[in-house]
Amino acid sequence: MALLEILHYPDSRLRTLAAPVADINDEIRALIDDMAETMYAAPGIGLAATQVNVHKQLIIIDISEDRDQLQVFINPEILSRDSEVAMEEGCLSVPGIYETVTRAETITYRALGAQGNKIEESVTGLLAVCIQHEIDHLKGKVFVDYLSHLKQQRISKKMLKQQRQAM
Ligand code: NI
């Protein structure tokens, strides 16, 4: 296993559209392991392959208290959305920034699990929000895009300053 480098906003590679995973092979399984290690180390509750510069439709989430309930979603797709909820979100690609975003409160989604098993279910609350946030990454979208232009500019400036200081 290995820690992967996480791309930071406003890196243009975060805008890449992810391609479907055609085959759940050893390469994908190794990627899942590395992404999990990277997410737990960060620490974060969700990570999309896009964020580690791998442009495949793969996301992982763990919202459990004990950090031992890894959920893997391959080729995830939202089938329906219901109600709205405003939640404060953060993102490993936008460290230190937390802003409220309104999304569907309940979603029905379809995906493949780590073993290629088909999943289709309705989820609500934090998990529904996380899945929407991570699927956005696969489409080249980050949560900052939902904020006002003024806020986007401010966040962008702050991130670039942080990145310069880290060099
Ligand atoms: Ni994110």
Q: Can you put this structure into words, describing what you see?
A:
- The protein is of the alpha+beta class and about 170 residues long.
- Helices cover about 30% and strands about 30% of the residues.
- It has helices at about 25-40, 125-140, 150-165, and strands at about 45-50, 60, 70-90, 100-110, 120-125.
- A five-stranded antiparallel β-sheet has the order 1-2-3-4-5.
- The chain starts with about 25 loop residues before the first helix and ends with a helix.
- Bound molecules: nickel (II) ion (NI).
- Nickel (II) ion binds near residues 91, 92, 93 and 133.
Concise overview:
Helix content is 28%, strand content 28%. With 167 residues, the chain is an alpha+beta fold. The protein binds nickel (II) ion.
Kindly list the characteristics that best describe this protein:
3 helices; 5-stranded antiparallel beta sheet; binds nickel (II) ion; 167 residues; alpha+beta; globular; single chain
Helix content: 25-40%
Largest sheet: 5 strands, antiparallel
The order of strands across the largest sheet is 1-2-3-4-5
Radius of gyration: 15 Å
Strand content: 25-35%
**SSE series:** HEEEEEHH
Q: How many helices does DSSP assign?
A: 3
Number of strands: 5
Structural class: alpha+beta
Mean pLDDT: 97
